[in-house]
Design a protein that fits this description.
Helix content is 64%, strand content 0%. It is mostly helical and 373 residues long. The longest helix has 31 residues, at 233-263. It is built from 19 helices and no strands. The radius of gyration is 21 Å and the shape is globular. The structure holds magnesium ion (MG).
Length: 373
């Protein structure tokens, strides 16, 4: 990768860190980053101490993405910064919270978590003397904005011509580093959701063995270590998942290296105009899609998960209604933003920043209801 396209507010480099190392450090020191520890991935935060949270998920994505970036000679620092920031805009209660907030915001521009992650680093973090947000480099911001609807892309493009939203209007790709983090995200949650699913008791080993991708690595694990068949099933599961992750990384690195060699983009702009270059091979892409479909049906739509996501939706919807009606229930700085024309956006920002447990406490305070014992 060549030189950075820089920051919206120019800052001299003076302490030996490069642009993307500085981005990463700002992300790690942000308030939004600390909150990820108490935000749900699939299981609500209080359901168990060993399930993934948004924080451990983000660390797993960063680890996977950095390891692959090194093998592909991509910019590891940029990859790490994007990975650590990619979920900063997530609401409490995972996808249930995001869907509920989007529903509440339907008439007010909607709620998109990737856009919210960008909003956190561009505007909502309040820890620097000279600017709102973290003033990150273009490349990190581009990677954070993974998806964006056309209407929001048009608005962003008006505010920042030729900026991070332009690619959604032109149908071009982001940097190789952004493409890599996107796939590392998918690899991380496919692997850890199997693990968390089994840990929760909602997924059974028999069910998993019907999935060809998992079966292959489970059989390999047992062939390499026959004692696993008698030992703790957790050890066999962890070994099979580790093999699956490694095989996906090998596949992605090989397929991507081949694409880069075949298409040989001349520079960063060549990458943006090319088709997606970071990719799995076709068989691995199909296997990964099948795994996602399996997890969707067997885990995310499991009756027990649905029951907690239904309650989570209600928490978010009730909080939204309560704050819109009475913004004074929010802390002063949020109540102040709510006095501006976009009251609903200020409320959505406040709710999106909450951890699971804080949202539950607020819900109890404002409604007197206890939805999660
Ligand atoms: Mg993620």
């Amino acid at each position: 990768m060549g030189r950075s396209r820089g920051r919206r507010i120019a800052e001299p480099l003076h302490d030996g860190r490069n642009e993307h190392q500085r981005d990463r450090d700002r992300i790690v020191h942000s308030t939004a980053f600390r909150r990820l520890v108490y935000k749900t991935q699939v299981f609500i935060n209080h359901e168990g101490d060993l399930f993934r949270t948004r924080l451990t998920h983000s660390l797993e994505v960063a680890q996977l993405a950095r390891a692959m970036a090194r093998r592909l000679a991509l910019n590891e620092d940029l990859v790490e910064a994007i990975a650590l920031a990619h979920d900063l805009g997530h609401t409490p209660f995972g996808h249930a919270g995001q869907d509920a907030l989007h529903e509440c915001m339907r008439a007010h521009g909607g709620f998109e978590h990737n856009l919210q992650s960008l909003r956190v680093v561009d505007a909502l973090e309040q820890c620097h003397a000279r600017f709102d947000g973290l003033n990150l480099s273009f490349e990190t911001r581009e990677g954070i904005l993974k998806h964006c609807s056309r209407s929001h892309a048009e608005r962003l493009e008006r505010d920042e011509p030729g900026g991070v939203a332009l690619r959604f209007l032109q149908g071009t790709q982001p940097s190789l580093e952004a493409q890599l983090v996107n796939l590392a995200d998918e690899m991380a949650y496919n692997a850890h959701d199997i693990d968390d699913g089994v840990r929760s008791g909602l997924l059974g080993t028999e069910q998993l063995l019907q999935l060809p991708l998992y079966r292959r690595f489970h059989d390999q694990a047992l062939a390499a270590h026959p004692a696993l068949a008698q030992g703790s099933p957790r050890r066999a599961l962890s070994d099979a998942i580790a093999r699956m992750r490694a095989a996906q990384a090998d596949d992605l690195v090989a397929a991507t290296a081949a694409q880069l060699q075949a298409l040989a983009p001349a520079d960063a702009e060549g990458v943006r105009r090319a088709p997606p270059l970071v990719a799995f091979s076709t068989p691995m892409r199909q296997a990964s899609t099948e795994l996602k479909r399996f997890l969707f049906g067997a885990l995310y739509r499991h009756a027990q998960v649905r029951q907690s996501t239904e309650r989570a939706r209600q928490v978010v919807a009730d909080l939204f209604a309560a704050y819109v009606q009475n913004p004074q229930e929010m802390p002063a700085e949020h109540a102040e933003s709510a006095a501006k024309p976009q009251r609903e956006r200020a409320v959505a920002d406040y709710i999106a920043g909450m951890t699971d447990r804080f949202a539950l406490r607020e819900h109890q305070r404002l409604t007197g209801l206890t939805l999660f014992a």
